[in-house]
Amino acid sequence: MRIRATVAAVTGALALSALAVPAAQAAEPKVPADIAAASEVVHADSGRSAFAAAADGAPIALNATFSSVKVNNGKNIAVGTTNVVKVPVSFTLTHGKEVNIHAADFFAAVELYRGASFEETVFFFDSNDASCTDSSATVATCKATVEIDPYALLNEDAGSWKAAAFAVAFNGEDPENPNLDNVGVAVKDPTNSFKLQRYSKLTVNASPEPVKKGKTITVTGKLSRANWDDNKYHGYTNQSVKLQFRKKSSNTYTTVKTIKSNSTGQLKTTVKASADGYFRYSFAGTTTTPAVNATGDFVDVR
């Protein structure tokens, strides 16, 4: 079985505290080593950081603030069953002149998490160390990427997520064994909210084709979505799906009727043939599953 033993990867001597293991289990996500160390420091005062109890001191406030934080260009994030999804994040970092954001031991990142707050996460993914470009002596624009591996997810992870931005200046301290009294930390939480969703698929087939005008057309299809517990696609049951049609000479689909998927996600209904055109099914989406349109299936009416 795949095991999600903790909320993040382990790096060096910095081991995260274990959460209760869910009934269905998943692999833990990979976190860049430098960011994992920085994340440990940022969470030193929370139960998420196991080394905090043995660490010396407490982090000091870093003269840095975050603004204009963007996650996935403002869109929800859909994840399938096999491919790692690379989510772009960006932000503006404003800092004091005494803060060297280009130092080798300075890290800035964005964390995507599920939970009440940055300090009370149920599960999370950290970006890599952001690449920052100075726009002035105290302002920089920064970009990074968060990698979301479906093998690290469970179905319970679908739904509402948040983002937070953080920066850590180790100021010469060993990232794996720092004296926290000398380490600067800045956090902004939350910065964004979004939905992490189970990727959806929708098919359609209209037959017979060709068909005589006025005769019955049977339109079948299937609505399915990613299952993160077993990394397969399963039918999405009892969901309202629209059957839509557009004439061959038109670019606009209109809704013919609304039906529901059955216990295996299958769709089936009938209509009368009226004109050449394309039939498709359209699903509006839910909190856990994104909207999706099937590719139109052309029917030649004679």
Name the descriptors.
Calcium-binding protein, five-stranded antiparallel sheet, signal, 302 residues, six-stranded mixed sheet, Immunoglobulin-like, mainly beta, 19 strands
Protein architecture, described:
The chain has two domains: 33-198, Sandwich (Immunoglobulin-like); 200-299, Immunoglobulin-like (Sandwich), CATH 2.60.40. Helix content is 3%, strand content 46%. The chain has one helix at 33-42; strands at residues 60-61, 64-71, 77-79, 85-95, 106-115, 121-126, 131-134, 139-148, 159-169, 184-198, 200-207, 216-227, 232-235, 240-247, 254-260, 266-272, 277-283, 292-293, 297-299. The strands form four sheets. Strands 1, 3, 5, 6, 9 and 10 form a six-stranded mixed β-sheet that branches. Strands 14, 15, 17, 18 and 19 form a five-stranded antiparallel β-sheet that branches. Residues 1-23 have low confidence and may be disordered. This is Calcium-binding protein. Keywords: Signal. Residues 1-26 form the signal peptide.
Task: Reconstruct the topology from this structure.
Blueprint: H1 33-42, E1 60-61, E2 64-71, E3 77-79, E4 85-95, E5 106-115, E6 121-126, E7 131-134, E8 139-148, E9 159-169, E10 184-198, E11 200-207, E12 216-227, E13 232-235, E14 240-247, E15 254-260, E16 266-272, E17 277-283, E18 292-293, E19 297-299
Parallel strand pairs: 1-10, 3-10
Antiparallel strand pairs: 2-4, 4-8, 5-6, 5-9, 7-8, 9-10, 11-12, 12-13, 12-16, 14-15, 14-17, 17-18, 17-19
